[in-house]
């Protein structure tokens, strides 16, 4: 499975792509940061993030996208920009029919370090180790994006199977209901 992790941000939006499967070795495919200038007009910054993410999704062709779930911070202006960048990543995936998973920072930290309160240095060290990298990904936004992708590789497979099972049960229930209604309209009652 190839997963693109996105650590959303208005100035630095981390993007990391890994390939792997639960219990298998992970491989780095790509890591970068989509940047916008803080003094640029807000709409142009969003456009820059959108064009950067869209180009990376098209080039790298992930099977799924994992985005950091935006949570309330004290600075509303910062959280709004972060949420807008997250929305752009979600939209880019949705346009291509890719599944999207949202993970809290604690979930991604716990997945790669075993500690949901790990600091940035611990995350970077573990991502470097898990991907067998010679040098640590920088800045921290890049390492965080890779942590999100790793989190989804390890946890997303189970979530995908559960979602598929739920869809199958829903589809089966819908088919049974259609059959019941069809039988009822033909004059037979199945009640």
TrEMBL record:
It holds the Pfam family RuvC. Binds 2 Mg(2+) ion per subunit. InterPro entries: RNaseH-like_sf (IPR012337), RNaseH_sf (IPR036397), X-over_junc_endoDNase_Mg_BS (IPR020563), X-over_junc_endoDNase_RuvC (IPR002176). Mg(2+) 1 binds at residues 7, 141. Its EC number is 3.1.21.10. GO terms for cellular component: cytoplasm; Holliday junction resolvase complex. It is an enzyme of class 3 (hydrolase). It comes from the Bacteria. Its main location: cytoplasm. The keyword Magnesium applies. It is found in: Cytoplasm. GO terms for molecular function: crossover junction DNA endonuclease activity; DNA binding; magnesium ion binding. It catalyses: Endonucleolytic cleavage at a junction such as a reciprocal single-stranded crossover between two homologous DNA duplexes (Holliday junction). One of its GO terms (biological process) is DNA recombination. Keywords: Cytoplasm, DNA damage, DNA recombination, DNA repair, DNA-binding, Endonuclease, Hydrolase, Magnesium, Metal-binding, Nuclease. Its cofactor is Mg(2+). The active site is at residues 7, 68, 141. Belongs to the RuvC family. NCBIfam families: ruvC. Homodimer which binds Holliday junction (HJ) DNA. The HJ becomes 2-fold symmetrical on binding to RuvC with unstacked arms; it has a different conformation from HJ DNA in complex with RuvA. In the full resolvosome a probable DNA-RuvA(4)-RuvB(12)-RuvC(2) complex forms which resolves the HJ. This is Crossover junction endodeoxyribonuclease RuvC. It comes from Actinomadura spongiicola. The lineage of its organism: Bacteria, Bacillati, Actinomycetota, Actinomycetes, Streptosporangiales. The gene is ruvC.
């Amino acid at each position: 499975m190839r997963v693109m992790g996105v650590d959303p941000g208005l100035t630095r939006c981390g993007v990391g792509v890994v390939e792997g499967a639960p219990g298998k070795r992970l491989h780095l495919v790509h890591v970068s940061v989509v940047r916008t200038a803080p003094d640029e007009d807000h709409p142009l910054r969003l456009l820059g993030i959108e064009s950067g993410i869209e180009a990376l999704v098209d080039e790298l062709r992930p099977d799924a996208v994992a985005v950091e779930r935006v949570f309330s911070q004290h600075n509303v202006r910062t959280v709004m920009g972060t949420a807008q960048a997250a929305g752009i990543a979600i939209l880019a995936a949705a346009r291509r029919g890719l599944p999207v998973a949202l993970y809290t920072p604690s979930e991604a930290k716990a997945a790669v370090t075993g500690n949901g309160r790990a600091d940035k240095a611990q995350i970077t060290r573990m991502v470097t180790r898990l991907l067998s990298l010679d040098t640590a990904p920088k800045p921290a936004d890049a390492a965080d994006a890779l942590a999100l992708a790793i989190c989804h590789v390890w946890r997303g497979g189970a979530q995908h199977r559960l979602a598929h099972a739920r869809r199958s049960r829903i589809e089966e229930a819908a088919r049974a209901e259609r059959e019941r209604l069809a039988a009822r309209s033909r004059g037979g009652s199945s009640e």
